[in-house]
Amino acid sequence: MDLVDLAWTTRYPLTTDAEPEATMRFHDGTVTATAITDRARDVLIQHGFTPTKATREYTLPAELGESDALGAVVCAESHLYTLGASVRVGLGIPTLQDIPPAPSRRPATPATPSPDQAHRRSR
């Protein structure tokens, strides 16, 4: 799935710890969403998301093609943005924060030269 256009158009809040009204996520070929307000729920449903058994959780139909799923997310995200709703779209691409740090290694100590090597260098 080509997510470049969506990545460039996704709008992020400047700085806020508040939970967004709607969160849409791409994961393993599926698209899921969470709505914490009624207006976010209404917009998600309007753009093809269906409620799941979990409260305030939605998904796009599995038979929807990649292009149509991407279009539904872009339309829902734009619609929510025009209403002034906060939206987060997770593209399923790991970020630096998702990658664990490499284990620290001890610095390698240089081997001391053998007497033969030390003698050759002094000539």
Automatic annotation (TrEMBL):
Biased composition, class Low complexity, residue ranges: 105-115
Region (Disordered): 94-123
Protein species of origin: Streptomyces stelliscabiei
Protein's name in the database: Uncharacterized protein
